[in-house]
Specification:
- This protein has 13 helices and 14 strands.
- With 395 residues, it is of the alpha/beta class.
- α1 runs antiparallel to α9 and α9 crosses α10.
- It is globular and about 60 Å long.
- It binds pyridoxal-5'-phosphate (PLP).
- Pyridoxal-5'-phosphate (PLP) binds next to α3.
Length: 395
């Protein structure tokens, strides 16, 4: 028997749920790409992206997924043989570093346990030891969607400054922009990359890069620049240059609507919504953990991300649970990736997401834990409801 007939739920950390308004905005005929309305879409999106990144720097839109933005960031500011320091905190900074290696960049990884965020003190020490200033850039993710941690970007900036180091600071905010506070200029970030399909409520297929003055300076001497990603070419007068080819116009129609929705809600409100929904999820997991089989992958409570949660299952393979959730109940919960594959699962609470979506997902996961016989403390949903009612008051 299954009870899945109904609206399917997607609770994976990307792609996330796309609002019907965004889908509807994309459903229209193609328009001219050389002049007229589309130029306004480009200019307003580039400008509003600055508001979301919290920067007065330059923004770029790529018809690519997050990996494209990664490559754009690397190739625009670095040269073959440059050394970079990758701050590991799960999976994504590490694989951004693997991409850098293939480009001919000398990559050093500052290793970290899969259950912890980056340690700013370790960053400071490593940079202090770099007396010859060999390290040209420091690369980190704000929220790692594999481990479920959030890195303290302001604290890492402070560590770079305390070491008196001049490296560029490059941040992947793909799974965090629009979900948690991000202050590109205030935190002294030189390059930020993000993607459309996480907190920005869009289908996959667009990614965005923001560059500050120091990155623009480095761009002048970078020798890895290729035509497609090149910032200088994209700053040209002709609209066609902004995308190095045909603008992904339907994606821009969707993006315009998604940015309108985010800015109408208010960035701060969206951050607060994510904080509360994350707390709701964590309240249930805390109780389930009492059964001894499950637990938070990230051991320190203040290092847990507000857009996605990774739950480890130890020796238990979670695939029966995840299959149950999807096949029997219609909720797709995230598998774990990287080193955690097969011993964890992930619940996303990212982007276009509200209380019934989160409570529905948690309710199905708890049902699945019971049905598949995984030991768990009882009353997780009650704890989630109690938390939510305490945070969202009637008045
Ligand atoms: C999803 C994700 C990526 C990769 O984005 P793609 O669009 O799949 O290329 C990179 N970094 C983080 C933190 C992510 O969550």
């Amino acid at each position: 028997m299954s009870v899945r007939q109904g609206r399917p739920f997607l609770s994976i950390p990307g792609p996330t749920n796309v609002p019907d308004e965004v889908l509807a905005a994309m459903h229209r005929p193609a328009i001219d790409i050389y002049a007229g309305e589309l130029v306004g879409y480009t200019n307003s999106c580039l400008s509003d992206l600055k508001t979301v990144f919290r920067t007065t720097g330059k923004t770029y839109i790529y018809a690519a997924n997050g990996h494209g933005a990664w490559e754009a960031a690397l190739t625009n500011v670095l040269s073959r043989g440059d050394k970079v320091l990758v701050l590991e905190s799960g999976l994504f900074a590490f694989i951004w570093g693997e991409m850098a290696k293939i480009l001919g960049i000398d990559v050093e990884v500052l290793h970290r346990d899969q259950s912890r965020a980056v340690d700013p003190a370790a960053v400071e020490q490593r940079l202090k030891d770099d007396t010859g200033a060999q390290i040209k850039a420091v690369m980190v993710v704000q929220i790692d969607t594999a481990s479920g941690c959030i890195n303290d970007i302001a604290a890492i900036r402070a560590a770079i400054d305390a070491a008196g180091h001049d490296a560029l600071f490059m941040v992947d905010a793909i799974a965090s922009l629009g979900c948690v506070p991000y202050e590109m200029d205030e935190w002294g970030v030189d390059v930020t990359v993000t993607g459309a399909q996480k907190g920005l409520m869009m289908p996959p297929g667009l990614s965005f890069v923001a560059a500050g003055p120091k990155a623009k300076q480095a761009h002048k001497s970078a020798d890895l620049i290729t035509h497609y990603w090149d910032w200088t070419f994209r700053e040209g007068e002709v609209h066609y240059q902004k995308y190095c080819g045909t603008p992904p116009e339907h994606m821009l129609f969707g993006l315009r609507k998604a940015l309108d929705m985010l800015l109408e809600e208010g960035l701060e409100h969206a951050w607060e919504r994510h904080r509360i929904l994350a707390g709701t999820v964590r309240s249930a997991i805390e109780v389930w953990s009492g059964g001894g089989a499950l637990g938070f992958n990230i051991t320190e409570p203040d290092e847990r991300a507000n857009s996605t949660t990774t739950i480890h299952t130890g020796d238990i393979d979670p695939s029966a649970l995840l299959n149950y959730c999807t096949e029997k109940c219609g909720v797709t919960v995230g598998i774990a990736i990287g080193p955690l594959e097969g011993s964890a699962f992930r619940i996303a609470h990212m982007g276009y997401c509200n209380a019934p979506m989160v409570l529905g997902t948690l309710g199905v996961v708890e049902t699945g834990l019971k049905a598949t016989g995984i030991a768990h403390g009882s009353g997780g949903i009650q704890a989630a409801v109690d938390y939510l009612a305490g945070e969202v008051r009637a008045d």
